[in-house]
Amino acid sequence: MSTLLNTYKPNYSVHPGEYLDDVLESREIKQRELADRMGITENYLSNLLHGKKPVGPDTAIKLERVLGISASIWNNLNANYKLFEAEQKEKESLSDKINWVKEFPIAWMKKLGIIPETIKNDELIKPVLDFFGVSSPEIWDSFYKKEIVSYRKSDCFTSHLKASASWLRAGIIKSGRIETLSYNSEIFKNYLDKIKDLTVKDVIEFEPEMKKLCAEAGIALVFVPEPPDVHIYGATKWLGANKAMICLSLRHKSDDQFWFSFFHEAAHVLLHDKRNTFIDDEGLDQDEKEKEANRFSRNILIADKEYNEFVRRGKFYPNDIISFSSKQRVATGVVVGFLQHDEKIPYKWHNKLKKRYEIIPGV
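and the corresponding structure tokens:
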């Protein structure tokens, strides 16, 4: 998260004229004397003291020579006051945008530390704009209307655009902090088999190893929990010519969904256009690219021939599933998920063979 969001900024600023007035009072210097020593008129000095005139560089140099207070201090006071005035003006102009910002998943953003827990409703707009790196609500609307043209997404993503975009942005920010080597498709392909072996391990073991392998292949792998009403499993986005992001939500928190989603996103990295951003959720139409990614994921996890033979035998007791998953070097939950999806067993069967993963909130 940007450190700007955590920087204390008071809601006031001192005009250099006010500071100058305090200096004159403390040193018992008359305004006429100061004006004479600086070579300016009393009227000009009066305007300085009352904030009607800025303390420019020439005046700052004169004040330094007469009062011994560095010109840089006067320039900083002047610059800070101008910035304060601009921020106050912006705050007033944004005050009527409160309904716009309320469309974002504010509670979720607070939970992840994107915006402060204690922030007031009328102060929400600035940290939200800072998070997205845009200057105004109008720019946000314009930018994302153009941006989503390149997204392969569902109507669900578009209908919950602000929440969906918040999730994706959180993933992009996390990915930006991960150092990776330049993308290498051959290394990534080879590592997928190693990553498959991690499916049988607990999350505390596989997470660091999985992220390490991905980073060595040029992939930033991040986990971001989904906001309410956004049914996203994962996303793939190229962050540059040599770095891709895979972001997973751990939707449903089960190992079968997690591993299928990861290898599905891996297919988008390996097989599909870098110019596209792929957002995979429950409402996504199964076009050819999505079907191709599904086939890729299934074939990585369980070989078609062996799976079809297992299904043909028709024995789906726990011991049968455990034995088959062991031969396939894959988590038992993945086999259960396949059987449920293919309607070979009811969805209520054998869920105890699945593992559940949790994400620690944070961006």
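(Above: one complete record from the training split.) Residues 1-10 have pLDDT under 50 and may be disordered.
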